[in-house]
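Sample A.
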Amino acid sequence: MEQKAINAIRFLGVDAINKANSGHPGIVLGSAPMAFKLFTEHLNIDIKNPKWMNRDRFILSAGHGSMLLYALYHLSGFSISIDDLKDFRQPGKTPGHPEYGHTVAVETTSGPLGQGISNAVGMALAETHLSARFNKENFPIVDHYTYVLCGDGDLQEGVALESISLAGHLGLGKLIVLFDSNDIQLDGKVSNTYSENHKPKFESMGWQYIRVSDGNDLNQINKAIKKAKAESSKPTLIEVKTTIGFGTSLAGTSKVHGAPIGEAEAKVLRKNLDWPYEPFFIPQEVYALYRKKVALRGQRASKKWKLLLAEYSKTYPNEFALYESFVKNEIHVNVEDFQSEISASNDATRNSSGKILNKLSAQNLNLIGGSADLTASTKAKGADGDFSKENRLGRNINFGVREHAMGAIVNGMVLHGGLKVFSGAFFVFSDYMKPAIRLAAIMNIPSIFVFSHDSIAVGEDGPTHQPIEQLVGLRAIPNLNVIRPADANETLAAWKIAIESKNTPTVIILTRQNVVKQNMTSYEGLIKGAYVVSSEKNKLDGILLSSGSEVGLAIEVQSILREQGKDVRVVSMPSSFLFEKQTLKYQKEILPRSAKILAIEMASSLSWYKYTSHVFGIDKFGISAPLDQALELYGFTKENIADYFLKILS
């Protein structure tokens, strides 16, 4: 019966991939036994409540094997029908790679290899932190595992190794990785590119290593998972030796990795695995097994937890109220509470941000995060000490020099639920984080990414550390709110927007150098994306459009132009994302089409041509020089820009 239930996964995968004429059957055929054993014996999920807070998380990091997941979810009773499986890789519920928020019970958008396992590290970290916060003796209300199924490709990605290293260092014992070790990848044998010994490698990084020599041996698999669950102080890698494309004549070759096996080969497979059924037919006794072993078992676990939580609420009412507030995760930021944090008239926005973040952390115990070995510079630091094996309540995560992993781990923590999570780095290293930032935008999750050292004003560190093209690159990502505040007022507004966001990740980009706090900058203005921060006095002769530190520069230029008889307006556009959401009427009021507009930004000019044909930007790399010299060499002085705009206005 178990073998029939395993083969049901295999044939649903093969049939759907053949019908789509697209997909990856190899991992479905090879990994079905371990996935079956995990789902039927260990994974606690509730098909009637897929968002049950204390469910185990299952991450298919090898997202190309999505039909494995869809088959399991269909058989387990989630709202994925046979017709949905027939529509695999077509518009509908079953896309080519799993998509969070698109398909029921999918925990993260996986596919870019290494991201899923890194998200899982974040989920395990979140579980560990929340369990320390809320669990009491006899009341383990936060008590679940994070399981991952990954392949050779995942473990070759740098982001995965960064995350694995941090998970071992932090001793995340509730993280269990099932490694589909089939020795084949798309271009051929794994040995063509990879010859590392996983056991000493993972053990040296603080992991427990277990090897299952036969991926079809359910007893071995079950024992391995039990052993992994028994080790509470270390994450576990279970290397399961499998055969890619098991049961086909292509088994053990790369030919079965990323292409349908075809109808003729499917007939061979049916004969080899004794599966006499037509495509997409599943015997009722198979459904009955999954209902008993996955659905009903999971519902019992869910019901038991609900009773435990109800008793917890009576025994620990204050802690329960706090727990509920964490789960709802609805924080409102009152800007009036932060006036002392933004009182300085001349401060770098990174410093203003740090002060604001400190107070936000004091007010909100579910705010957690940290920087990539840069807290002294970014000021993006969590409260209550460092999160560690010894201090699970610490809210500062020392990510180390692991920017790529940091972004993915933050996403995983957000996906887990119950926490507001931020990261910090130098802006130029957003390049290392872009895949994770992009995935946050795709998933509609409110991750917060803080970046300091936003321009050539970094100075002496030179072109390797001076962002040029990063702003336009991030602004091009759909559903990503990139905010570059001009001063302390806008920095506070940026944090309010980021903290209160529900469906959109936020990037906050901050200065290293001091900037003047302006009189008219505000949350009410920033929430509209662009607004007038210094108006013309009488007749509008032109508009200076800018963001960040260049807003202050634009106001200085405005004064010079007035002396020259030109009456211009200064517009701050900290967020083109928010500006594009305003009415056309508002957009025309702020930037009249009849006006001559000069955009000013110490970065690539490409961001601004939607609003004007006149841009004073930087379309080459930076220079190693003191701040003032760098700005002068690139023309960012009030006198030079005033002369430049006068020629446009004349």
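Sample B.
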Amino acid sequence: MDLLTLGSFVFFTGLVAFLTWRMTRHHGVSDSSDGYFLAGRGLTGPFIAGSLMLTNLSTEQLVGLNGAAFKDGLSVMAWEVVAAVSLVAMALFFLPRYLRSGIATVPQLLEERFDHQTRMITTVVFVLAYAVIFLPMILHTGATGLIGVLDLHTLTGIESRPLLRTLCVVGIGVLGSVYAIFGGLRSVAVSDTLNGFGLLVGGLLITWFALTRIGGDDGAWAGLQAVREAHPEKFESLGAETQSVPWPTLFTGVLLLNLFYWTTNQQIIQRTFAASSLKEGQKGVLYAGVLKVLAPLILVLPGILAFHLYGFEQLPLDAEGKPIVDAAYGMLVNEVLPKPLAGFFAAVLVGAILSSFNSALNSTATLFSLGVWKHMRPASPERSLIAVGKVVGTVAAVASMAVAPLLANVGSIFGYLQKMNGIYFIPIFAVVLVGLLARRVPAVAAKSALVVGLLAIALGYFVFDSYGMHEFHFLGVVFVGLVVMMLAIGQLQPLAEPWTARGTAPVDMTPWAGAVPTGIALLVVVGGIYFAFA
């Protein structure tokens, strides 16, 4: 990496940090728990959309999903395109109910709907899952991506891949902790939006440069046509049974995991709780839906182009001698991106890594401070809650940095992440959905579903091999079973009176007039994409 690349990397990284500080320094992010954890409930649609996208769009996508596309082709776009369906459900069904309740966390809603024990179970599950599964995965994929994009082996002279990965993990972890622990949600949202714009531009440029390299003098369109003619099997929207996303799973585990992620996952939806109004919240969520249907251009297509350029033969090998498909994206970026732009893209890539990392840290701190500490010490002043949140964020950051190096040999990064997420995604989503729709189901049903669901999925994964089913079908079966169990308990031990939301909306609840038409249009586009490539 030459001095121009290094200089542009440092410049753009510093520029985002400076602009974030300038845009948040007068907002008192540390003066109140609402300010620190929910940005003072003042986020508008563009900031919500930008933060949603970049919190989601990180190296587990850039590296992991492009690695999956390298292997399986276009069918892995399900994780992006189907997300638009979930975002429509969030905007039209879940978000109005969340904002009307005035909640700051999903477990808080479950306490109001069921009881405090339900809240405690979900809070502990979220905190452990973020610290042990999600945060380490972000650090691992971030380190893998940076090593390839910046060619850090050459830059540093360090030949040991494990050592270099560990050093990157620590560096990313420390930098991300500064944003989340000392800046609060507003600094997270602003830096997300700034980095998000850069990442979208950089991602599209990489796709463009790769296509023009393949097409030569005939241009990018000719390059795309050449890849489609050479590998038509890579452009099938419906995955085969041997691939990571077989098409029937679109209606079971894939849909359910997407629904949880975009409607119930605290780390993602926390910025929607910070909306200045229902109208702005719906705008932000649906703007994000529009971006998701375009996301395969930077999250799937580059992986297919890398397959055309390199095949499996040119990939580095893991300790067992197997090709590391998740290295494909870094190889592509390092080869096709002009050197003057390499530093810029590395900077926004770091921004994407930090975005997901600091968002999960902020959510972890929010969940513990408002869900556990405030219950233990109800008289705690606002500054005490924030201080506890910073301590918890620091502990979670250190734990994730310790776990991340252990993920070096998990195979497909993105597939592993979705599998592990299913352990807690499915039970929590079942409880939230039944809680909102079936108003006489008692608290014992929710607690039973959480415990039974967690145990059933863990045993199915690690002991009984999903009972011979595809993992995503297995998740669908568990979900249906949990819903039926909760409804049955509701019939046997119904609440004396149906539950009604008691919270007071802290913001204007006038809906956006364009929400329903935009939602319908997104659903039509999703169907059209699948039909066009089927």
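B remarks: The domain at 3-412 is CATH 1.20.1730.10 (Sodium/glucose cotransporter). The chain has one domain: 3-412.
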